[in-house]
Write a structure and sequence with these properties.
Two copies of one chain form a homodimer. Chain A is an alpha+beta fold and 627 residues long. Chain A has 15 helices and 24 strands. In chain A, the strands form three sheets. In chain A, strands 3, 15, 16, 17, 18, 19, 20, 22, 23 and 24 form a ten-stranded antiparallel sheet that branches. The radius of gyration of chain A is 25 Å and the shape is globular. Chains A and B meet through helix 12, strand 15 and strand 21 of A and helix 12, strand 15 and strand 21 of B.
């Protein structure tokens, strides 16, 4: 084991009275029960009864199971944090139903049990059998952790053991891997939960085998020998075009990519293998420097839900699936534990507050699957989706949010994110309470109270976000000039009960600009304050889409006092609006539209489409010279 | 008959030594034979043998016939202009094959004869049976006109008579109409070629019946009574959501729309009915003022190949099908004869020189189906398409190009377009030769020589394009100050053999701006000179996509002396390039990219993607103030 840092357990982190406590309350009280109802209404829950018969509608889909597993995982996190007898009962009932659907040999997938049992393990490229297995393992670990009930964890091990018999390098085994990565990271989780090293080895096998010639999916295709079968998708779309350790560019389906890279990061953490780290570094740079939306969205293309080429980041047609931002958070989180470097935390925070959080409405009832950076008014939140991966994925992210705030090692505590609440920790064998008092992300002042049971020396790393130009820190009222180590303030001292830190992160509205190779942002800027990207909506800004912005200096944060956005901080300032006078009878002209001063109201990106339908823009043109 | 103006017959108009003579030579010598080969290779020609049997590949498609008919039409135009024995032989052979495929009752459609004969006339919404009939009628008229051979024209009448028996208002008839308009305009053409008024009445029936409740397609659907049938597309996509005369906004599939509106314009010309004119005016404004790309492209959305909402004109994802620009030219041409107003000619010319002509490569061998206004480098010309409507459509447009230049009435001649060549005309009973000496569209000077057999008085209308700010005119060396009447200079005089006019249209590079509601052009401008929209390609401009342009003043037209673009006029000038220095390790920054002066080379939009693959932009950002 080469792990030095590990995430602090989410259940030790409580959010109280701030931004996240409200979001998590909505998640717990509204979205978690609502998604359960949707899963039920659409037949996903009932499918586990295995009573489907040919001709009956709906036909279970081959990855329906995963939607249910993600809900089980989310509900377990909710339950681990606080008791909830009715939720516990529902979970137990569902766990029983799932366990009963497991086949005698350990196999578990509804579709390949009742709809196409003969096709089991015949088409890993498309079947999602290992993908659904992975989500089952994650759910089983979470459920066991929350309830102590070992039924699902035992079922998971039986299934993992079956998979381990079928797949592997041995002469009687098949050298396969799934078209949709997920089982790899889940197997590492199962290893961590059970201590059974063979699950780690199986994860390693899947990761290392992926894309190796001769290609397993070619072999499967030959074995199926079905002339009517459509052409396979290009293996690049599934990150299987060459061995993973030879991949240098993030390509293909974005969610699959970041799930795959997360599994690789887990393996790197468990093995310390430098080859994995080098691959992860290259892939990270490919994403973070060339393929990332300002919002933390990834996967620009709707076709294949995939990454586009370097710097190709279209706004209105941005796919930027909610699940992809969530997976990016998973991946960044793992990299942070390998290397406490701010560059990972920046992306994790941007994705969390923007491209992931935009996936659910303020009331917790409507969802975005696709998160464009501009809309002419036709893109709206929906109650659910036929392919329903995103809503339960958000549930489990939010229900385990504490996991993303802190890493700890024997004598070290890293603070990656800020938010009002308290964590219970143990450092150097001493239990301590770590309290954050802050209105982050609306304000940049963070009060930290560190209360060890007795004085204890450890290194505290506090992230100073990259967007923050000026910051100050004091300890027990004495100001301190700290040094940044890869973006973290490092404080190495003996901490005593009641020690208080005041970290003040200057949080000003600012204009952000994109790399010149990003054509879709050329001549434009975006408004950002702290970790929040802002956007303009038509409901606030009658001139959209032609609102111009030249500076952020006039912008002030303004708290909304009432209405649907109550409690949120908007940015209000001045920009320019292209006048439509004289344009009634022409669509094009040799004269440029005249710009006139206009008030501008910007809302956090994650908040858009919570009110009236209408256009939205993140990237705003800057007023041309001479206009 | 209320027609006043009529197009001058294309075969009377010859292009010599200028822009169009070369384009038409390539069309005649390369594209026409090449598209025939493609039609042959893909099975479209052989399908007329009616020897398809179940299980054989390829299965004829239900509108394959139309691709062949458009080729027949184009080849007939080529033949009408100059003799070509081998083309004539091929056409005759093909005409015989087509005629032989006609069924004893007059029906003609390969798919519904050999593949699904039982489905004849059961699903007009999807079947394209009347659409292919319409293209057959157009081909038949053209073939007869070119060869004097009446086989196809007789076959067309038999088919039209069958259609007229099946469809119509009578108690034994069906009140149907096709999902893809085309037969309407073709029936008017058949009426004009044969004098049989019943074809005009049938066209009127189809146009007036369209969208009337109770909806015919609902009735067809009930009659098919097939529970497995997918939901119909929204009727709005096919311009059948309400009666045509109640439609006020251009919606749905753009090609279908402009074919439909062209048929309505034909009906308006033949009947003089003011209701038709009012509808056409409203629909024209919807397109020309709110849904038209600068290039003359229409139909912004790939999904459904349809118009988007007002002012929604995305660049990179612009669909702007070649056929849609061609259909827009058809429509604008018809409106010009109803009302010689420049506004129609402007759109016709823009579509011709940009969005339509871009559909074929300079060498005539490769085609665009989709004509975006920006590309990050992945959109390229292709040799052919599975849905191959565009290439043969371009063939027939170019082969009959003369049709778009002049309109004539008893005592009037309107000149809509300029191009080197000569036309033979008859005005007021006097034959005359009308010669244009010009390098248009590369230069704006046009010398006109008018040579009537004997002095004759008539009104000459010369279009002064809207892009032209300054112009001068002289007659036989004496300068003249004329008055513009709806954009045309009106000269009412007695013309004598050898009269010479010199029209000088100032043609300067200029920046064009879009209506403020067009968000995708906010803060941007496009380069235009004369009728040509220019674009930047990566092969000439290393800074793309971040090339900024503040003025057209530095731009000069430069004739290319050699290489693949030889003879074309580029625009060379100065702009600004965003420097990538300092951006190596960041994708976003609070500092705007620095702009540095850069040479800019622009090529006519229709020329793009004729050299190295790479990015392209029409709308260029203007340098922000202070940068």
């Amino acid at each position: 084991m080469s792990i030095s840092l590990q995430p602090v357990d989410f259940a030790s982190v409580r959010f109280t009275g701030g931004f996240w406590s409200e979001r998590l309350r909505v998640n717990r009280r509204v979205s978690v029960p609502l998604v359960y109802r949707r899963l039920q209404e659409t037949g996903r829950i009932g499918a586990f009864n295995l009573d489907w018969r040919p001709g009956r509608e709906p036909v279970p889909h081959h990855f329906w199971d995963s939607d249910v597993y993600k809900w089980v995982e989310a509900a377990s996190y909710v339950l681990a944090e606080r008791s909830n007898p009715s939720l516990a009962a529902r979970l137990q009932e569902l766990a029983g139903r799932i366990a009963a659907a497991q086949q005698p040999d350990g196999y578990l997938n509804v579709y390949y049990t009742v709809v196409e049992p003969k096709l089991r393990w015949t088409n890993l490229m498309r079947s999602h059998e290992l993908y659904t297995a992975g989500h089952f393992f994650e759910a089983a670990v979470a459920y066991h952790r929350a309830t102590g009930d070992s039924r699902l964890l035992e079922a998971a091990q039986r299934f993992a053991d079956l998979i381990g018999r079928v797949f592997g390098p041995g002469p009687e085994q098949r050298p396969g891997y799934d078209g949709h990565p997920e089982v790899e990271l889940a197997l590492v989780g199962l290893y961590r939960a059970t201590g059974r090293r063979r699950y780690l080895e199986l994860a390693r096998f899947f990761l290392e085998e992926r894309g190796r010639p001769p290609h397993f999916w070619d072999r499967e295709r030959r074995e199926r020998n079905d002339p009517a079968e459509p052409e396979p998708v290009p293996y690049e779309r599934l990150q299987a075009h060459r061995p993973l350790l030879e991949q240098t560019e993030a390509v293909g389906h974005a969610v699959r990519a970041v799930y795959l890279y997360s599994g690789l990061a887990d393996l790197a953490a468990e093995t310390g293998d430098r080859r994995y780290r080098r691959t992860l570094d290259r892939l990270w740079e490919s994403v973070a420097l060339r393929k990332l939306y300002l919002t933390g969205g990834i996967g620009a293309l709707a076709v294949g839900e995939q990454f586009s080429g370097d710097y190709h980041l279209p706004n209105e047609t941005a796919y930027a699936e909610t699940c992809a931002s969530i997976g990016l958070i998973f991946w960044a989180r793992r990299l942070l534990d390998l290397d406490c470097d701010r560059r990972y935390a920046e992306v994790m925070e941007a994705a969390l507050y923007n491209g992931a959080l935009s996936g659910v409405s303020l009331d917790g009832r409507r969802f975005f699957y696709v998160n464009p950076l501009a809309s002419e008014g036709r893109h709206h939140r929906q109650e659910f989706f036929g392919c329903a991966c995103c809503p339960p994925n958000l549930l489990r992210l939010l229900a385990s949010l504490g996991r993303y705030f802190y890493s700890a090692a024997e004598d070290e505590l890293c603070v990656h994110l800020y938010g009002a609440g308290a964590a219970r920790l143990e450092i150097s064998g001493v239990r301590l309470r770590f309290v954050q008092e802050t209105d982050y992300p609306w304000e940049g002042r963070v009060g930290l109270e560190i209360s060890p049971e007795r004085p204890v020396r450890f290194r505290l790393r506090l992230r100073v976000p990259e967007w923050c130009r000026n910051w100050s820190l004091s300890i027990n009222g004495t100001s301190l000039s700290g040094r940044l180590s890869r973006g973290y303030l490092l404080l190495d001292r003996t901490w005593r009960p009641g020690d208080r830190l005041a970290l003040d992160l200057e949080m000003k509205p600012e204009l952000v600009h994109a790399h010149p190779a990003v054509g879709t942002a050329a001549g434009c800027a975006a408004l950002r304050r702290g970790p929040l990207v802002y956007c303009l909506e038509g409901v606030d800004n009658p001139g959209l889409p032609s609102i111009f912005i030249d500076s952020a200096r006039s912008f002030r944060p303004v708290r909304v006092e009432s209405g649907p956005l109550k409690g949120l901080v908007l940015l209000k300032g001045r920009g320019w609006r292209a006048s439509r006078a004289g344009w009634e009878k022409r669509l094009y002209s040799d004269r440029a539209p005249k710009l006139e001063p206009a008030p501008v109201i910007a809302v956090p990106y994650f908040v858009w489409d919570n009110r009236a339908a209408g256009p939205m823009r993140v990237w705003l043109p800057r007023p041309p010279a001479g206009s």
